[in-house]
């Protein structure tokens, strides 16, 4: 029987600076969902990559005094290096400078043109380079973009191509009405519905090549290059081989997109209208996560200029290990709300949940099993992810379906707490002297529960899950899984 297919993608980070913890959050969340779906038996295609066109990148390359292609090659590698550091399981790492993506983008443009949704006009706008978006006066705070208050707006006055966004107001509202879980969480969905209800304005989808030469050439017009947002969004389908590989595209599309809240408008309105214009199915679902903030509540981002060691995912990988980073981002960062982050908070979460929590429990249970030679059959848990009868597993999987990663992990750590309590109350290491049979029954139950925890942890902490299972099966006392940090 052919497997059910499942497609998901992150947004593509802009390669104008080093990777930071905010993007690590998005890609780890997506990776966890991809792993859950594989464990459930789906044929999964998981996409990520890098967004490499646009004015910001062109200017950054000029600042560094290097060619633009050399600049994007350097930074794309830094993002691809996250695969090892975060143990990511993506199937494709697409770059918007890839030859196939360029040809797919031109085909998409021509389809929108054929639909009558692309036209040319003179215009004058206030433009935020940080967002790579035009801004209306109602979106400004003290004359500046609220997302990038440290940047001066640019005034752009030229003749460009526009996309007929205004045409899709009612169509988008019908899409939202007929798909009540199209955007998760609800309060972000309400934001985009309000935005669309208030009326849509056509938006520019090209720039003059003489002013911004780093972009995809507009078909049949050598003087214009495509606007970065138009080009980058198409990666979600070009990565599936569209338009040539029809079989692969139809197998996996539509899928789920992960995005930050500053991408809400582009992902859930602009991109959907573009898909409709090209006569293609809209996205299946969009998961919107919040920002990771500094202790003062300032958004951590490349464009805010406040990234450094404290927000460098490679620092936490080198200091604490891959699974510790994955654990913290899924349990201690809210999936939808903005979350304060610091190195101290990370260390506290690591020590409490991993060193003193899971790691300590593994050591205690395995030690008792070895010392008292308790037999245990793990065969019934080997295929637990295929079970339809385990209520705890159902609850756990349901949290992932709703992208509530923190609640899923809380369920496991509540079980860890219950096991610690059981050891304290029954004290099998003392009971073994007076009632060996009962003590071994308790230890066997603890080993069973620990092995089940390891199975449930497979999508979130795959290395740790494998280690725990091997420790139990080999009956060998392990080195501590997580060393406490002082």
Would you give an account of this structure?
This protein is of the alpha/beta class and 486 residues long. It has a domain at 343-474: Orthogonal Bundle (Isoleucyl-tRNA Synthetase, Domain 1), CATH 1.10.730. It is built from 19 helices and 17 strands. It has helices at residues 21-39, 55-64, 68-80, 82-85, 99-114, 169-178, 186-197, 228-233, 235-238, 246-252, 264-277, 313-320, 322-331, 343-371, 391-401, 405-426, 428-431, 436-456, 462-474; strands at residues 5-10, 43-50, 92-95, 118-128, 133-135, 140-141, 144-145, 154-163, 183-184, 203-204, 206-208, 217-218, 221-226, 256-260, 285-289, 292-293, 339-340. Strands 3-2-1-14-15-9 form a six-stranded parallel sheet, with helices on both faces. Strands 5-4-8-10 form a four-stranded antiparallel sheet. Helix 6 (169-178) runs antiparallel to helix 7, helix 14 (343-371) crosses helix 16 and helix 16 runs antiparallel to helix 18. 41% of the residues are buried. The mean pLDDT is 92.
Short description:
The protein is an alpha/beta fold and 486 residues long. It has a domain at 343-474: Isoleucyl-tRNA Synthetase, Domain 1, CATH 1.10.730.
Strand content: 15-25%
CATH superfamily of one domain: Isoleucyl-tRNA Synthetase, Domain 1
Proportion of residues in helical segments: 40-55%
CATH third-tier fold name of one domain: Isoleucyl-tRNA Synthetase, Domain 1
Oligomeric form: single chain
Q: Which value, in Å, is the CA radius of gyration? A: 25 Å
The CATH architecture of one domain would be: Orthogonal Bundle
Low-confidence stretches: none
Task: Sum up the overall morphology in one term.
Answer: elongated
Average pLDDT, all residues: 92
């Amino acid at each position: 029987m052919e497997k059910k297919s499942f497609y998901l993608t992150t947004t593509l980070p802009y390669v104008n600076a080093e990777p930071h913890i905010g993007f690590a959050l998005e890609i780890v969340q997506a990776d966890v969902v991809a792993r859950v779906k594989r464990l459930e038996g789906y044929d999964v295609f998981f996409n990520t990559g890098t967004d490499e066109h646009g004015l910001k990148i062109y200017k950054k390359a000029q600042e560094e005094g290097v060619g633009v292609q050399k600049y994007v090659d350097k930074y794309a590698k830094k993002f691809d290096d996250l695969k090892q550091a975060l143990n990511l399981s993506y199937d494709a790492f697409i770059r918007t400078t890839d030859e196939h993506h360029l040809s797919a983008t031109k085909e998409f443009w021509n389809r929108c043109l054929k639909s009558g949704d692309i036209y040319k006009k003179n215009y004058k706008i206030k433009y935020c380079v940080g967002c790579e978006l035009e801004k209306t006066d109602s979106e400004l705070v003290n004359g500046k973009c609220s997302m990038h208050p440290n940047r001066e707006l640019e005034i752009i006055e030229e003749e460009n191509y526009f996309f007929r966004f205004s045409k899709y107001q009612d169509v988008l509202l019908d899409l939202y009405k007929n798909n009540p879980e199209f955007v998760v969480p609800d309060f972000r969905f309400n934001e985009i519905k309000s935005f669309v209800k208030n009326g849509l304005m056509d938006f520019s989808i090209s720039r003059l090549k003489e002013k911004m030469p780093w972009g995809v050439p507009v078909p049949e017009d050598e003087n214009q290059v495509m606007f970065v947002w138009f080009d980058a969004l198409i990666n979600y389908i070009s990565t599936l081989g569209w338009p040539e590989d029809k079989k692969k595209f139809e197998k996996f599309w539509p899928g789920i997109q992960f995005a930050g809240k500053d991408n809400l408008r582009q992902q859930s309105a602009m991109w959907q209208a573009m898909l409709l214009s090209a006569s293609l199915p809209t996205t299946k679902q969009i998961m919107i996560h919040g920002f990771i903030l500094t202790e003062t509540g300032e958004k951590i981002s490349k464009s805010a200029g406040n990234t450094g060691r404290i927000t460098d995912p490679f620092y936490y990988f080198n200091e604490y290990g891959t699974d510790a980073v994955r654990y913290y981002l899924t349990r201690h960062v809210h999936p939808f709300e903005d979350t304060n982050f610091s190195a101290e908070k990370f260390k506290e979460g690591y020590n409490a949940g991993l060193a003193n929590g899971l790691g300590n429990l593994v050591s205690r249970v395995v030690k008792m099993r070895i010392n008292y030679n308790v037999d245990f059959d793990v065969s019934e848990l080997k295929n637990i992810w295929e079970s339809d009868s385990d209520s705890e597993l159902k609850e756990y999987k349901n949290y992932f379906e709703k992208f509530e990663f923190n609640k899923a992990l809380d369920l496991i750590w509540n079980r860890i707490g219950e096991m610690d309590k059981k050891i304290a109350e029954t004290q099998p290491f003392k009971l073994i002297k007076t009632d060996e049979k009962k003590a071994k029954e308790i230890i066997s139950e603890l080993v069973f529960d620990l092995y089940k925890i390891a199975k449930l942890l497979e999508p979130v902490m795959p290395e740790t899950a494998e280690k725990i299972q091997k420790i139990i099966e080999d009956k060998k006392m392990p080195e501590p899984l997580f060393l406490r940090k002082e």
